[in-house]
Amino acid sequence: MLRFLCKRLALAIPVMLVVITITFFLIRLAPGGPFDQERNVPPEVMANLHAQYNLDAPVVRQYFDYLGDLLRGDLGPSFRYTTRSVNEMIARGFPVTMELGLYAILFALLVGMPAGIIAAMRPNSLQDYVPMSAAMVGICLPSFVLGPILMLIFGIWLGWLPVSGWGSTPGDKILPAITLGSTYAAYIARITRGGMLEVLSQDYIRTARAKGLSTWRVVMVHALRGGVTPVVSYLGPALAGLLAGSFVVETIFQIPGLGRFYIQAAFNRDYTMIMGTTVFLAGLIILFNLIADVILVWLNPRLRQEAGH
Q1: Distance between CA atoms of residues 221 and 213, nearest Å
Q2: Cβ(100)–Cβ(253) below 8 Å
Q3: pLDDT digits (tens, 9 = 90+) for 98-107
Q4: pTM summary value
Q5: Of 163, 186, 167, 191, whose CA–CA distance to 175 is shortest?
Q6: What percentage of the chain reaches a pLDDT higher than 90?
């Protein structure tokens, strides 16, 4: 397992370097600059601003200077929020984004896995068609459509839940979590169904049934561990997608998370905030994928044996 972890970490370094390099040069190739929206700024003041933020140096030198600061854990100052650093803004917004992502993945697992298991127990029947049809609707319905629909029904028409804000009441977390987690619940339902159908066709499952065990005991005790293996491998990309997808949901529900800072930074050409958020999220994505792979290797003895070589 230690060798497996070292290999994955060694692969993560060039991946991060590629992400940093592409993002750094792309945002500087985009038209406009961080101070172009400032009006009536004398040329000498603009020159001082560029000098203060190292924008007057050649782009290649800016790149290597940024890598040096990054190795020290310094993501730089924000161009638009002059009293705050990028580290401070990420520390402020990320806990909200992470909390939203955890609620969404919990909703996705609680809805998706039971739906997939129920569908797999009686394939090609009404018990299979209904949850899989609902899953297909969940996949096809994007969050920027589902969110306003839920706000209209449960927030405005029925008045049951708040439609904006975060942290004032427990109810204001329900609609954002459902909006963000619905698509992933649909994917998890279909993945669980496929994994369970494959396991339920194995010889040891037929042996368990021949011994007279109940269907639920066969499914929950003997088949579930192997059937959810594809779900575990999907959780890493799913958590990464939840963090990225939360940007839209945070904007819809006016949630003060990292996504809103990132979108504002994109509009304001806040180079350091864009870079810092991208690097931070890329690192989290790699970490989540690594954790998912470790759990997957732990659950599958064959993969554990292969990881040792």
Answers
A1: 10
A2: no
A3: 889 899 999 9
A4: 0.78
A5: 163
A6: 9
